[in-house]
Amino acid sequence: MILPMHEQSLWHPVALEGALQSTPVPVRLLEQDLVLWRDSAGAPHAWVDRCPHRGAQLSLGQVKQDRLECPYHGWQFDSQGQCRRIPALPELEVPASYCVQAFEVQAQHGLLWVRLDATEPASPIPPFPDASSGLRLLNCGPYDVATSAPRVVENFLDMAHFSFVHEGWLGASDHPEIEPYEVQETPTGLKATGCRAWQPRSNLHATGAAQVEYTYEVLSPYSAALTKVPESGSTRISDWHEAIALFICPISPESCRVWFRLAMADHDSSDEALAAFQHTIFCQDQPVLESQRPKRLPIGARSDLHTSVDRLSLAYRRYLQRLNISFGVCP
User: Fold this and answer.
1) pLDDT for residue 4
2) Which fold does the domain 9-115 belong to in CATH?
3) What is the dihedral of CA 178, 180, 181, 182, to 10 degrees?
């Protein structure tokens, strides 16, 4: 049984792990401005991006001797968020109350993940193949999208748009049919099996059109993954298979930042070529996503018209309702 959870208790991706070096990085999560920085041991930290003295952005400051220094008056905060130095009063024993709010942060899937509410039990970071899988791993993005995170997830789970949004690539308008498929609940979300689509160019190594079998999984309210296997003999690489994860940072109820993590049986293509294929596909999706109204995903009983092809989308909307998710959705 899926138990209700609060958005702030979830782990959310906020930045590529490699994007955080010696300089503080500003990010935004659930309408909260954060600053990310690393200490000399390489440990990442995530704080409110506001100095408690006069409210300046700490992300405009610098790291000095394992302390983050405010750009306005030079106050220095240690890795726990405690102020340790006030330059204007060098002899002052700084009170313990002079501190910055800190949040949990960890690295996984090549991304930095933050959760804002540590008072509730931690849910796991969504799973995905790692280096031990033997697959080629690559992150693509970020993409800043002017729509809600649930809208992007629902699009990722939808096959009926392939023949129109991705015509000539993942679909063709003269092959729009979607066969029946199955959806079931999992301990963490949803799984759809038996999903099939006819695709002119299903991947970078496709040699021709092929029937492709998909399996979809909803991993958390704002993340999902798919695996796709084209029919035998339709690619230059034998036994081709791939998995793609969608990881989203909900920035505001109507905007988000998106990453894709690829896991592929391709150890020959360049990173640039793999990323370019994924970039082409998502750039076809993005203008349609940003055109949808309302921008927040409607999950009420009378929200939209539906057909049997939309059973995974409907299951996802019901899943959000069961979890009491409110950020990025509407009745």
Assistant:
1) 67
2) Rieske Iron-sulfur Protein (2.102.10)
3) 150
Which pLDDT score is estimated for 3? 61
Residues in the chain, total: 331
Residue with tokens 């798919």: 226
| pLDDT on residue 2 | 65
CATH superfamily of 135-330: Naphthalene 1,2-dioxygenase Alpha Subunit; Chain A, domain 1 (3.90.380.10)
> Domain boundaries in the chain?
9-115, 135-330
Looking at beta carbons, which pairs linking 79-88 to residues 24 or more positions away fall under 8 Å? 79/39, 79/43, 79/45, 81/47, 83/52
Strands (E), 240-296: 242-252, 255-264
Residue 287: partners with Cβ closer than 8 Å, 6 or more residues away = none
Which residue positions in the chain have pLDDT lower than 70?
1-4, 301
Is residue 34 within 8 Å of residue 49, measured between CB atoms? yes
- Kindly report the pTM of this predicted structure: 0.95
3-state secondary structure at position 72? coil
Q: Give the whole-angstrom CA distance, residue 292 versus residue 255.
A: 13
CB 239 within 8 Å of CB 231 = no
- The whole-angstrom distance between residue 106's C-alpha and the CA centroid of its chain comes to 14
**For position 240, what pLDDT does the model report?**
73
**Alpha-carbon distances of 270 from 129, 185, 292, rounded to whole Å:** 20, 37, 34
